[in-house]
Amino acid sequence: MQAIPPSFKQRLVALEKQALRACARGIVSYAKTALAGCLLLTVAASLYTARHLELVTGRNDLISTEKRYLQLDEEYSEEFVGVDQVAVVVEPQDIPQGKAFVTRLGERLAQEQEHIAEIFYRVDVSSLEGKKLLYLPAEDLRDLQRSLEDSQEIIHELLTNPGLNTLFEAINTQVSSAVVSHLVDEFLGLGAPLDEDSGEFSDSQLSFLTALLQEIARALYGQDYRYRSPWAEFFGGTAQLDDDGFLIAENRKYMFLMVEAKEDATAGFNDLQDSMAAIRQAIADLKVEFPGLDAGVTGTKALGNDEMLSAQHDTAVATVVSLSGIALLYLLFFRRIRHPLFIVSSLMIGLSWTLGFVTLSVGHLTIITVFIAPMLLGLADDFGVHFMTRYEEERGKGKNQAEAITIVFEQTVPSIIAGALTTSLAFFAVILADFRGVQELGIISGGGILLSVLAILTFLPALIVGMDTFWPWRVPVGQQTVLQTTFSGLGKYVERKRSLLFGIAGLGTVAGLLALPWVSFDYNLLNLQAHGTESVEWEKRIIANSERSSWNALATAPTPEAARQKAQAFAALPSVETVEGVASLIPDGQQERLHILTIIRPLLSELPPLSNNPQEVEVGQLELTLDKLRLKIRDQENGSATLLHEARQHLLAVFEAIRTLPEQNVQQRLALFQDALFLDFQDKWSLLSNNLSPDGPITFADVPPQLRSRFVSRDGQRFLLQIYPKENIWEREPLTEFIRQLRTVDPDVTGSPIIGYESIGAMQNGYIEAAWYAFLAILVVTFLALRRITDALLAILPLGLGMIWTAGLMWLWDVQFNLANMVAAPLIIGIGVENGIHLVHRFRVGRGGSVVSLIAGSTGQAVVLFSLTTMVGFGSLMVAQYYGIFSMGLLLSLAVGSVLVASIVVLPLLLYESIGFIGSFASDPMDPINPTDPTDSHG
Amino acid sequence: MGRTLLLVIGLLFPQLGWADSPAEVTKRLISTMQSCGQEFGSPSAPPQCTSEEIEKNLAVVQLSRWLMGPHWDTLGQEKQDDFIALLTRLLRELAYPRASEFLADTQFEYGDTQLQGNEALTEVSVVNPDEGRVTIGFRLNQSEGVWKIWDVRLDGVSMASNLRKQVQSLMSKQSYEELVERMQRTIANAKTEEAG
Questions:
Q1: A725: which strand partners?
Q2: Domain ranges of chain B
Q3: A329 phi and psi, to 5 degrees?
Q4: Do B183 and A185 touch (CB under 8 A)?
Q5: Which of A184, A623, A644, A658 to substitute to test the interface with B, most B CBs within 10 Å?
Q6: Using CB atoms within 10 A of its CB, is residue A926 exposed (0-12), middle (13-18) or buried (19+)?
Q7: For residue B98, what are the CA distances in angstroms to A156, A935, B92, B104?
Q8: CB proximity under 8 Å: B 126-165 to A
Q9: Secondary structure (3-state) at A496
Q10: Cβ(A750)–Cβ(A555) under 8 Å?
């Protein structure tokens, strides 16, 4: 009888078996050599890593450098000063306090040469002397003109007899004129006085009176009163020109100090950490001396720094928690020290090889890949668990060391390799995604899995064999452990309640499918940050007070004229709040402004010169004047009603204070207030007087160099525009609209909003693409590993169910996808499929068993242990303060947990239920995958 | 001899001896208005609450002439009379009722009277404990021995001056007819409001 030649498949399987046996024999025979080789490689990899691995920061490092907007942004950062500086935001009680603080802080930071490259907090405006009023828009100048015309009598009194008494008497006269004028208008049926000198009290005057009374009330009542200028209401925009070159927000609430922090290339992952710490320390030291003042840092760099610090801190904590949790689980599971010690040692060896591989292949870690250590510990430990549990199972059956290792290699290692290949291929597949950060994640994770499994298949068995001499293996032969009893009970429960469990699983799946449309993506990067992070809080505070973000977009033009035109085009967009650039340095329409100044000039020339000394406050007389004002300033039902009401309330407060507070206090506080008020008035009046007669329009030559360098490139060939949004562009919709509109003017617009928008989009797409590629890869690899479509589909089923259930849980717990936790999508696909492969493979080799034997056997135990350790690994990320990491930990824990339940409950039931329906499960004696060892069972 | 001299003087210049002083004229006007209060002009008002009673203290004719300034002589007698009548009606419809209402619940502190020839200024502080105070200056002119009020100053701001400025501005920029029409319209509106 002629023998039938074996098929290619059978030859391949036989070859595989021979190779695995050879490996087992080799490891057993040359355990010490294998150990030495592994350790040598570890030392070499560690040294190489320590010397060459780089840590890159910033989201820009995640994007391909070929992107035009990124190239432009980098060019602008080099060509223009201050594009990407750290912003110190100061919220003083008043502007003088803010100026004092900022000056002190600037001086202090100037000494920090090790950490600070440049400080910018005050512009030397001497070159603009005489022309400052030309910075006021024509409308503001007209308001100033009106204000000066309306208040000629008051100003006359302020100049000749400065003092609170004369000021209020002049105001009272003006108010009286307005009252009389109003009566006369009514008498003659006029809407408004025909004669311009007939007297009225304008809204700006009323605003000034309100501000003045409010300040006096504060001065009288406040124990630690700090002067705030009420003259802004009187002089209009002129008051803002009196900022001495300090950087003050339009709302007058914040002041800024810009810092170019030095980056320390040797500082590791966070190269700004020391500089930021130095800035924060300086702020903290100085704040003590300025009660009531608040200050902090923000801006793109500060946000990035805080993000890195949080991530670093959280990763360190998470790694410790993860390792401790996994070790504890191992101890509970194995009830001995050897197993966790051996597995963790092997994982550490694999990790060092992985880092060597990362250094060799990618060369650096990023914010995405920095979590490689806890991630690999969570992902690769199952290989060790499967190996150890099976080895223990065989030793428990009475097999000696060599026999047990051979069986593990023959029967368990194929599924370990299949699982590792599947996972690594899933990760390698993400390289196809069009996003550099995700591509690197794919390379590092895929390579890391393969190297980890290599360590498990070489170092671990060598360690088992090598250590056996010094630390002999002892197994309580024939004695059922607590764990086996527990898993056996679990298996029996699943088998007994199959209908109920199927029903619950079905309901969960329907609910998950219904919840899918509600799962959304949170685009706001601020929401990723840890609650209470200083830079985030300041950013939010600025947004809340100005309704605009500190983010600004950048564009350039080749000439000042082109920059002006482009600025106008940007400014006309509905989503643009303001545009800063050369146009804001050299204002438009200066001829009109010069003309208005010629009208204003005579108004001042007719007035007497400024007198320096305020008269002493006569409190009784002041009270009398205020009493007269009290009668006239009454609530009315017209447009000024709110202002009138406010003015009256403050007037009553002042009146009450004068009548009730001790006379000496009133006298003293009013005197102090009067001094501050008139010193302030003198400053503003001088500014006005000195800038009324400019010798021509503002030209480029007049612009202070500090400002010029911010908007004109170093070679003078490009002119920068900084475009601020009207709305909070940390939110996706306003950001999308902002960028869409900007690109209608200039497609090459760039800056943090554009990079953020593009990188978020690219990352999101990258993760989604990666998930699809990973899914396709596991489909192929699972089929190749199990060689039957039905088996492959059953192996993937827990992953599918787990993902659907996760969607339901996300809806239930209000968890959104975000930039940090999106990585879970490709990860869970890589991780989730392993359970199915191991269980389906074990089901096939242990044909004839039951649901109970599959769950309670070593494979079931290993699946549970692996999933639990993975959950602990990822769950440990939930200790993070950084919300991005927390949400990643939460999402992955939910997903791994869901896949575990589907694997250990639904899959075994389906496997055994499907026997009767699927013919292909029938025994095939020629199928070498099926066990030939009749002693093998599920445990 | 002395008594005879006084009698002769008294007979020749009766107003010097019996005419009210500026302060008394002012007090009488304020007293009349204060007692009338919101009832001014109504059928139930006391007998003294009539326009005629008030106008005894006011120099409406003189005021009219002063308001028109250089335009006065160009108007002619008829228009001058019409203007005086119109101003009187305007005062009756608008000024007296509102002034009466304002003065109803207030206290008065009478100050000194400054005399300068035929001109006098009597200052009165109007005090309302809840609302505050205001100094009202009554400017009087003596004509034919009788002091009559022609201007009221609110904390030093002259109402008559303001009115004169507006009237003259209206005359210059528009016309006398426009001024009259506006005054008539104001009277009509006031009557409508009163009826409503």
A1: A576
A2: 20-195
A3: -60, -45
A4: no
A5: A184
A6: exposed
A7: 34, 117, 10, 10
A8: 126, 128, 131-135, 154-159, 162-163, 165
A9: helix
A10: yes
Do A53 and A352 form a contact (C-beta atoms < 8 A)? no
Query: What is the longest distance spanned by two Cα atoms in chain A?
Result: 135
Neighbours of B3 (CB within 10 A): 7
What is the per-residue pLDDT for A829?
79
- Give CA B82 to chain center in angstroms: 18
Interface test with chain B among A182, A185, A631, by most B beta carbons within 10 Å: A631
Q: Indicate yes or no: CB of B157 within 8 angstroms of CB of A177.
A: yes
- Which H or E run includes B110? strand B107-116
How many C-beta atoms lie closer than 10 Å to residue B78's C-beta? 8
Going by the DSSP 8-state scheme, the letter that residue A114 receives in this structure is T
DSSP A410: I
Interface test with A, best of B105, B169, B175 (most A CBs within 10 A): B169
> DSSP letters along B111-174, please?
EEEEEETTEEEEEEEEEETTTEEEEEEEEEEEETTEEEEEEEEETTEEHHHHHHHHHHHHHHHS
Band the pLDDT of A39: cuts 50, 70, 90. very high
**Phi/psi of residue A641, nearest 5 degrees:** -55, -45
Structure tokens at A415: 């599924």
CA separation for the pair A341, A795 (Å, rounded): 31
Is A708 strand, coil or helix? helix
Using CA atoms, how far apart are residues A156 and A603, in angstroms rounded to an integer?
11
Q: What is the dihedral of CA A357, A360, A362, A368, to 10 degrees?
A: 40
Of the segments A11-15, A210-214, A488-492, which one has the largest average pLDDT value?
A210-214
Residue A554 burial (CB count, 10 A): 27
Count of CB atoms situated within 10 Å of the CB of B124: 21
**What one-letter code names the amino acid at A904?**
I
Please state the separation of Cα A364 from the chain's center in Å.
21
A contacts of B157 (beta carbons < 8 Å): 173, 176-177, 179-180, 199
Nearest to A736, CA basis, from A721, A752, A758: A758
Q: pLDDT per position in chain B (196 positions), as tens? A: 444 444 444 444 434 445 688 999 998 888 888 777 666 666 676 766 777 778 888 898 889 998 888 888 888 888 999 999 999 988 888 888 778 777 777 788 888 899 988 899 999 988 887 788 888 999 999 988 889 999 999 888 898 988 898 888 888 888 888 888 888 888 888 878 766 6
CA B90 to chain centre: 12
∠ CA A557-A560-A564, nearest 5°, is: 80
Q: What are A779-789's pLDDT values in tens digits? A: 887 887 777 88
CA-wise closest residue to B162 among A146, A173, A195, A150: A195
Contact predicate A487/A860, CB 8 Å: yes
Of A910, A878, A906, A904, the C-alpha closest to A891 is: A878
Kindly list the distances between the CA atom of residue A853 and the CA atoms of A397, A484, A494, A847, B75, in Å, as whole numbers in the listed order: 16, 10, 11, 10, 124
Tell me the β-bridge partners of A721: A555, A581
> Which of residues 146 through 205 in chain A touch B, CB cutoff 8 A?
172-173, 176-177, 179-181, 183-190, 193-195, 197-199
Q: Among A3-7, A657-661, A674-678, A744-748, which stretch is predicted with the lowest mean pLDDT?
A: A3-7
Q: What are phi and psi of A368, to 5 degrees?
A: -80, -40
Q: What residues contact residue A297 under an 8 Å CB cut-off, 6+ apart?
A: A86, A87, A88, A89, A259, A276, A279, A280, A283, A534, A535, A538
Per-residue pLDDT at A932: 33
Report the C-alpha gap between A351 and A374 in whole angstroms: 10
The CATH classification number of B20-195 equals 3.10.450.710
Amino acid letter, A289: E
Contact predicate A255/A248, CB 8 Å: yes
